[in-house]
Amino acid sequence: MDKQLDLLQGTLDMLVLKAVSLGPLHGYGVLLRIQQISKGTLEIQQGSLYPALYRLERDGWIASEWGESENNRKAKYYRLTAVGKRQLEAEAEKWNRMADVIAGILRTRSEEV
Amino acid sequence: MRLWRRLRSEWGAVFGRARLESELDAELRFHVEAHAEDLMRAGLSREEAVRQARVKLGGVERTKEECRDTLGVSLVESLIQDVRFGLRMLRKNPGFTAVAVITLALGIGANTAIFGVVDAVLLRPLPYKNADRIVWAAERFPFNHDSAVVLSPDFIGWKEGNDVFKEIGAFGGAPGANLTGGAEPQRVTVTNVTTNFFPMLGIQPVIGRRFLPEEAKEAASHVALLNETLWRSRFGADRHIAGKEINLDGTAYTVVGVIPGNVNYPHADIWTPLALDSKVFSPQSPQWMALTVIGLLKSGVTVDQARTDLQVLTQRMDQQYPPQAERFRANARADVVPLHAVLVKDVRLLLLILLGSVGLVLMIACANVANLLLSRAAARGREIAVRAALGAGRWRLVRQMLTESLLLSLSGGLVGLAAGFSGMRLLRQLIPPEFSLPPTLEWKTFGFAAALAILATAFFGLVPALAASICDVNESLKARPVVKRRRFSRLRSLPVLAEISLSLVLLTGAGLLVRSFVRLTDVNLGFEPSHLLLATVQRPFTLGFDSQRHSAFFREALERIRAVPGVQDAAVTGQFPLGGLNNAANQMRLADGTFYRPATPILLDGISPGYFRTMGIRLLKGRVFDNRDSADAPRVAILSESFARQAFKGRDSLGQRVDYVEPGHPDPAELTVVGVVSDARNSALDQEPLPELFTPDVQHPFFIMTFAVRSKGDPRGLAGGVRQAILSVDKDQPVSELQTMDDLLASSVAPQRFRMLLVGLFALLALALAAVGVYGVMAYSVRQRTHEIGVRIALGAQRRDVMKLLLGEGAFLAVVGAGSGIAGAFCLTRFFSSLLFSVKPTDPVTFLSVSMVLVSVVLLASYIPARRATRVDPMVALRHE
Q1: In sequence order, what are the beta bridge partners of B709?
Q2: In chain A, which residues have their Cβ closer than 8 Å to the Cβ of B31?
Q3: In angstroms, what separates the C-alpha of B67 from chain A's closest C-alpha?
Q4: Which value does ipTM take for this structure?
Q5: Nearest to B376 by CA among B468, B493, B490
Q6: Where are the extended beta strands (E) located within B503-543?
Q7: Residue A27: closest CA among chain B residues belongs to which residue?
Q8: pTM here?
Q9: Taking the CB of residue B363, how many other CB atoms lie within 10 A of it?
Q10: Over the stretch B60-116, which tens digit does the pLDDT of each residue have?
């Protein structure tokens, strides 16, 4: 396994939104999905996951309902709401711009200044 | 939108609480199990898998707490939790709770009561229409800057010439009158008011009408308005009183209306119109009237503008006066002051001092409760550490502690409010009579108390809460809770030091008042006050100013009073010590043509021969009056000691001539001095005796006289007999005042006694609170150091050494606290000086003695726990740890 990266401050919400945008997930599923997408490079503090889910639900970006899990247990599934979708797009856009800017700065060599 | 969602979420969080908990539980359980299953698939045993899944998730409780916080449970739910927990803690420590609540209640109660009075007197507007524009105007004359009157001709000048007043009115004193007809004659106070007076103040009559403008003419002015109180007491609240006649000093007046009883300015039983066409309003008249002037400013006119305007008018009046008036009218100044300021002048300082005193008491109370909470925070170090270890955040802990102190201050505030309300009744006598409205518990007062309670909480809740939150979890959880001792104990001695110095300030104030009160009651009166009854009689003014009929009446009544059983001796006098000034002169001409002009007025007093014997005033030289000094005998005088000394400066005063011009008499009275008597405190207890000149009453008849009656037994028992004796001479003659000299003395020092008791009470309160505070700190310190003391004793320290060690701590507190207190008192007591009598505000005896009292109390409060410490059994103490 590659060296794991700590999550950047403020990005957990965006990742959770992205994870559930691909289909309804329960909490544990969100963890697995993020690990899977990032190919195991991102380590999410499990303790901070649930407060994040509750926060996103409170703000109306995700909604929850109880359903059956793959092994027939009752689990709480989260899905992206319309508001959440817009929020995710906005966040992704912001993130990409920011990433471009920072990448540009980091690529700069001394003769270019 | 977001707010709504948030509110809904909080609502759901509080009321769907059970569902939320079970869902949270189920969700997290599912998470652990799903994770564990994955781990089992990787080959772990079930137990190990579950354990690892749990560890990975982190503290389940903590996660839950954070989720709850996210939903806003914290705001409402945890408040309820905190309150419930706080109440439980307070119930569990009834001693602590009682002391804290009582301490706060005393502080807040005293403040509420005093503030209620301050509000009623200083803050609330007067109960008049346009109260903020009502001003009082007076003339200040060079010879008497305190004069508070306006000469009647000047009033007319102001009234006609000014353009600053919407309305200007005046009132002046008739000395009162005998109200006859009906059961018994009664002495009533009568005030002459201008007809615009009541309309100007917006006062409506209860019955009938106010005066009409045309009643300001002398011919029409035999109409009267009754005070509601008199109307009820004497006229049985007769609804048809308007139009009926009453008899004042033998003259009939028609009642036109009744004025509400709460009108106390100007106070009178009966008002009659001030006749503006009477001759006293002419500058050329031989006599003027002294008026009090009240005006309603035009809106937008300032007090200063009004003062300037009246000043110009006053100067313009100068040329209308006869030349001899110039002597005192020259440089007369007009003064205008808001009426409210005039009425509160005498009590303002006292009220502010009381407000300051109770403020200090409240600060001490807060320091004390802070101290109590601090001790408890220390004792609860472990509990707090456990909470911190279980995941309670620092802010959460602070909030918990704040909630507890808020509960304390709220209960203290409620109890204090009740205490303050009852205290306010006791304080009523602080309110000048012109303020007819009693202090009521208004929202303002309540708000004040509530603000105090909240401030107090913020003040003493924060310190222990922060102190509690700086405790080190690891340290505290060890078997021996050591809670950053050094930082803590220094923090703890601060409130105690503050308490000690604040109570020293209060004690000094109280000490000064006590000392000045003792001085005041210790004054050499110069007469014998016990067994003395004083009955003042005012003959009808209408009988004339100078009539032998007065003398005949008083002589006859005196004979009958002497015959009343129980009377040892009796005399009649124009004025009596502490009875107010009835008759005074500014100067006397001496035989060599020079004038005796003391800085103070000279009292003139006509007396019957036995007066000095009855009063117990000593004859120093010459003789007293006797039957030789009849009305047509050569006129003679007796001087008081200070008169004789100041006027004759060492020369023998006996046989000297003293002349003085009586009002209404063109020729000066030429008097020969036949005796000198010792000084008596005549004007007031706290004033040096005024020079006094006595004449035989028959040679100087006056229409107001007082019978001084020396009784064998209780002088009060003679009241009825004396009254009957007077009525038997003239059935229409009431006694205007009947009192014993003992009562008069008591009432003349009543304000001083009252303020001494009040400030003294607050100071004792402060002292007791400070003692409790010191005791708390020392007891805590001893408990913390039990181990150390045990070691010391085990190593051979004597009990004396231990005692010295601990008392040293107390002494340190006492000396530092008292030191800063003395400095504070030194700065503050100067505001007291006008309340003190023959004691300097920096009186070293007071400062020294209150400091000693305070230091002894502090030492005593630390001695009790220190003695307990010396009893420590070293074995027990060492094992205890």
Answers
A1: B533, B570
A2: 26-28, 46, 50
A3: 5
A4: 0.86
A5: B468
A6: 532-538
A7: B31
A8: 0.69
A9: 18
A10: 777 777 777 776 655 666 777 778 888 887 788 787 788 888 888 888 888 888 888
